[in-house]
Amino acid sequence: MDLVGRHNVTVAGPVDGQPLLFAHGFGCDQHMWRHVVPAFEKTHRVVLFDFVGAGHSSAPYDPEKYADLDGYAADVLEIVRGLGLRKAIFVGHSVSAMIGALAQVAAPELFDRLVMVAPSPRYIDEGTYVGGFDEPAIQGLLEALRSNYLGWASSMAPLIVGNGERPELGVELTESFCRMDPAVAQGWATATFLADHRDVLPLVSVPTLVLQCRNDVIAPVSVGEYVADAIPQSQLVLLDATGHCPNLSAPEETTAAIAAFLLPQAVI
After folding, report:
1. CATH class for the domain made up of 3-262
2. Which terminus of the chain is less hemmed in, N or C, by CB atoms within 10 Å?
3. Helix (H, G, I), strand (E, B) or coil at 46
4. Is the pLDDT of residue 267 over 80?
5. Rounded to an integer, what distance in angstroms lies between the CA atom of residue 201 and that of residue 252?
6. Which of 214, 198, 225 is nearest to 127 (CA)?
């Protein structure tokens, strides 16, 4: 099975442009970046793809491989190497932010910069670390997902995306969640919400932009601050955005922040 077919890879922009990979979050697909990527297609070689079980990916789901986020990071490295990319910039939303960090640490020679949109290295509170949830809440979330995935998607998606005055955003995310195979969704959610990759952050060796929404029920501001403090070469930008999906709810502000990091002389 070819690389493009496995991960539904699409490429746009100049062949000699610096590679810019956009990775979607849990329950989404590359379509979630549609409002952001056009701003970079003249300057960068833009690469989009779908993770296993999402969008039009045809990659087989291996529960053992994808039991943790390292399996997803291995897919990122397969795409980067398969396309012959060098000095790649990786933009990851939500769980993909940490997937990108894992990939960069595993193969630092392949990456030039990271952009982490609403990242979280650990969702469960521990000691002085505030991840946003206690363990019973996470276990309850996962049990609800396992017992009634479609019902879980319908109730959780509007909360995750926020912006209650714009119900169409919740509808779009709900539909995206519902397109995922429930078995794949359960495995990815478990790997995501039980992960603890705080130890990875100090190992990230490239300049990193952390984008954090001011009102996010999944990743509170304290988490964005923690991530930015832990990564040696990082900067935190607080977006005047609500919800966990600023690439969908506040694409202009998200685009401008990424452009200021990548193209400081440009006006988007």
Report:
1. alpha beta
2. N
3. strand
4. no
5. 28
6. 198
User: Which has the closest alpha carbon to 245: 159, 124, 183, 181?
Assistant: 159
Residues contacting residue 241 through CB under 8 Å, at least 6 positions apart: 213, 214, 215, 249, 250, 253, 254
Collapsing DSSP states into helix, strand and coil, what is residue 266? coil
Residues 30 and 57 sit within 8 Å (Cβ to Cβ)? no
Kindly list the catalytic residues.
Answer: 94, 216, 244
pLDDT in tens, 8-45: 999 999 999 999 999 999 988 999 999 999 999 999 99
Residue 230 near residue 199 (C-beta atoms within 8 A): no
Q: Which residues contact 126 (CB under 8 A, 6 or more apart)?
A: none
Residue 150, number of CB atoms within 10 A of its CB: 11
Segments in the chain forming alpha helices (H): 3-7, 70-82, 95-106, 135-147, 149-161, 167-179, 182-193, 221-230, 246-249, 251-262
What digits encode the pLDDT tens for the residues 135-160?
999 999 999 989 988 888 888 887 78
Closest CA to 261 of 232, 240, 237, 226: 237
- Which residue in the block uniquely carries the two structure tokens 């009102």? 215
